[in-house]
Amino acid sequence: MDDRRAAPVAGKPGTASLSLGRLGRFTWPYLLLLPTVVLLFTFTLYPLVQGLWMSLFTRGIVVVPQVESTHPVFVGFDNFIHLLDDTNFRVSLIKTIVFVVIAVPLQLAVSLGLAILLSPQTRFYAFVRTIVFFPSMISMLIIGVIWAWLFGRNNGLINYLLSLFGIDGVPWLENDLLAQIAVIIVWVWGGAGFNMMILIAGLTAIPRDLYEAAAIDNTSKWRQFTHITLPLLQPSIVVVVVLGIIEAFKVYELVVSLTTGGPGRATVYLIQNIYETAFRNANQAGLAAAQSAVLFVILMILTVVQLRFARKRP
Asked: Residue 261: left (phi > 0), alpha (psi -120 to 50), or beta?
């Protein structure tokens, strides 16, 4: 007697249950992704579209039906044209670009140096990595408050240490250039630990055999770094640079708590200028949305360029 089971025949209950099983296996992953998609749409895509739409209007940040002056008035691309004559926007954008150009490479260099120095997988180095990573778990707002005390001219710890060597107190937060330098120092310090961990993960993925072969050939440490480490670490470096550029363009909490944008407007960067335009000026929410749209386009272009560059690596 043949004990093999007969294959399901079309039109019988076995075929229907088999089809439902396949349908369930196909749809189940998408059902698991649904909550994330809903959150992404609610808190990212919808605000993005709403902000782009708002940039085409002159309106207040809050529309009150009883107050006619807050009602949206369609102006097309006038808000974007107005940005060309907006001195505060131009200055804050230039300062932000300068900040990005200086701070991001500096943070990359510091993070890479820390990653190479602390990459050995021992308990001691793991403990030191934890200490270095700790600032990344603190809000930039809190970091700014702490460093504002450290940079204090009369009672700051840094100037006190300098006074032990006979150096007069430095007006870190009272001079335009020094205040910008202080923001860069604190921003690099606050994010270097997180980037260090990304780079250490990249370093551990590099085969040790390559370094052993290079050592056998009497290759110097510098040539090993430039011909083995850097090329194979490029994907991690691209991630660090992309994230760093995005965070640098969005710098706000740190500046508010460290310098409040001062002295004067020396450290008012783009996000703070957008905030002031939207919340401190009447019926300028549309103009602030136009500034945000410009920031979005800049970040999108820079991100696409860097990712394309990364794909073309040898």
From this structure: left
| Predicted structure pTM score | 0.84
Q: Residue 286: exposed, middle, or buried by beta-carbon count in 10 A (0-12, 13-18, 19+)?
A: buried
User: CATH 1.10.3720.10 in the chain, residues?
Assistant: 80-311
Q: What is the 3-state secondary structure (H, E, C) of 200-244?
A: HHHHHCCCHHHHHHHHHCCCCHHHHHHHHHHHHHHHHHHHHHHHH
Q: Which tokens is 151 given? A: 């940079």
Measured CA distances, 302 to 52, 136, 243, 299 (Å): 19, 24, 11, 5
Burial class (CB in 10 A: 0-12, 13-18, 19+), 150: middle
- At 168-195, the pLDDT tens digits run 888 889 889 999 999 999 999 999 999 9
State which CATH number among 3.40.50.2000, 1.10.287.40, 1.10.3720.10, 3.40.640.10 fits the domain covering 80-311. 1.10.3720.10
Note the pLDDT tens digit of each residue in 227-254: 888 888 988 998 899 999 999 999 999 9
Q: Which of 17-21, 76-80, 85-89, 181-185 has the lowest mean pLDDT?
A: 17-21
Burial class of 248 by CB neighbour count within 10 A (0 to 12, 13 to 18, 19+): buried
Residue 25 burial (C-beta neighbours within 10 Å; 0-12, 13-18, 19+): exposed
Separation of CA 72 from chain center: 32
